[in-house]
Give the backbone structure.
Amino acid sequence: MKPGSILIAVVLCSALYCRAQDAAHQPAAPDTAQKAAPGAAKASTDSYVIGESDMIVVTVFKEPTLSGSLLVRPDGMISMPLLGDVKASGKTPLELADEIATKLKKFIQDPNVTVVLSQNNSKIVYLMGELAKPGPVGMTPGMTLLQAIATGGGLTPYANSRKIYILRNLGGKQEKIAVRYKQALKGDGSLNLALSPGDTIVVP
């Protein structure tokens, strides 16, 4: 073999060897599913505010006697072993979990507490009449008229969209609020009314 050919072969072998070494030391792509923290799926900015008659699940890690499903009483309280009555209404699940953990520090070292809403009974609106799915609907924060109707599957072909109205209790009295559905549907935000817990949307 000619000296020039030997030199070229040596250079090619060296380049291939270096590339193989780089590949061997290249870090593997991180597995995003494994990289995520166990609780990453939980929204850290939960804005739901617990109310009376809601059902919540309180879990204290490795403390089954302190964990369980609890009903928020009409006075806004829940009852827990060791702690007695704890105010739940008016707090988000994260705020309540932090408060329970703080109170439990008197009895348990570094308590790990989670609170999850299992049943929304305090923030309900009702859909009546010509809707695909009439009945109670759990409110989301800031729910509007159009969002509630969409949650109910929309109007049926027999609905009279010009005569839709909202029944709302104000100070013990029931108020009838006329709805301009078609205008709201066209994008007039002022007519896409914000709902209040207990509202009833009636679609004739």
Remarks:
- Residues 66 and 155 are 46 Å apart (CA to CA).
